[in-house]
Every structure is written in structure tokens, then in C-alpha cells.
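Re: weekly structure request thread

Next one in the queue (221 aa):
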Amino acid sequence: MKELLTQDKLREFLHYDQDSGVFTWKVKRRPCFNVGDEAGGEGASKDGYIRIRVNRIKYLAHRLAWLYVLGQFPPYHIDHINGNRKDNRIANLRQATRIENARNRARRKDNTSGFTGVSFDNKTKKWKVQCSAEGKRIVIGYFKTPLEASEVYEKFISDHWGDFKPNTYRKINDRIAPIILIDGGLEAMGFTDAKIDQFPLICAALVRHIEAASSGQKKAA
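Done, posted below.
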């Protein structure tokens, strides 16, 4: 798509709030939108991105945010730092290569280990760690448990990926997910004698411990 829209023209049509990342219309857009209505407010598409139609051309909202603030469309990809494709605050956007943008993604839906970069290898009967570095896919090693494999994976990406390693929320989510997603999840988390149907009780106990710890920290402060 040839992007001919300029910053001045964009600002004629839309207002962009840098703190919220939301665009609103400055002109009435027949038949559905009035002045002040949120642009792209119908929600994100199936891929999670918000799009806005300007002069009959549909643009990705995060690229419009870049144009609105910096005066030009980004020459490369734009990465959402926190992983939320609907969060188009300028502070949450950064230029990235295709490879860098791909690194800051959530765990694949077809992942069965519960950990990013970790899969079960039927040949060795161990958990395999794979990762990309310098444009190549490499096997880092094989490990007895998915948790052990995940720790090696996280160390690798921390050393090689810099700012484009997955954000903290995703790391926490990947650590919790195995309890639900794999039969050995409870064992991997240290509950060696627990059964899958005891998961709700374990969660409730963990929440109570977290709340107690948080309360203790507040009192100490």
C-alpha cells in the first residue's frame, strides 16, 4: 500500500492523545461517526491491531500514531513494547526490524510445553530448547523438565536479544501456564504429589500466601 497521507492532512481529520493512544475524529464522518467519536473504536481486528480508514484507505493505528507525532511513517516495523497490539500510546511504540518485532510475541497457541521456546523431543524423551540468533534457528540443549529448559531459554534470550526479549508479563504467564497445559505441570512447579484436579486448591493457597506477603510488606513500610 502506497502511504501518501501527510502529518498535516492526518491532523486535519484526527486528534491523537499520546497518553491514551486513542484517536478521535475532528470532522464528521458519515454515516456513523461524529466529531469527538473514537476512530477505530469498533475494536481490533482478528490479528489484534486497530485500523482507521482515512480518505478511503485503511491504516494501522500505530503507524498513524508514529506519523502524527514524528511527522513521517516509520520505515520499518513497529513493535508494541508491552505486547498489547491495541495499546497505541507513543511511549509503547518503537521501531524494529522484522526479526526484532517477532521476538516480542506471546507464546504460540500450539505450544504444548507451556513455555516459550520449549518442546518435547520424542527421540531423546527430553525437553528441547530452540531459539533464534543472528537470523538462524538453533537448538540450545535438552533438559529433564520444562521448567529447567525454560530457565536456560530465558538466560539465552536475555544475553542475545537485549530490549526485544519478551516482556515481564509474558514471562510470568509462561511460568504459570504449565500447571494447566501439561500433565507434569504441577510436578514442574514443585508439587510432586499433587493431582491435576487439585489445581484450584493449590491456586487458592498460592493467592493466600501472596496476599499475606503483600500485607506484611505494606506493614513493614
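Confidence is low (pLDDT under 50) at residues 168-174, 177-183. The longest strand covers residues 126-133.
Next request, please.
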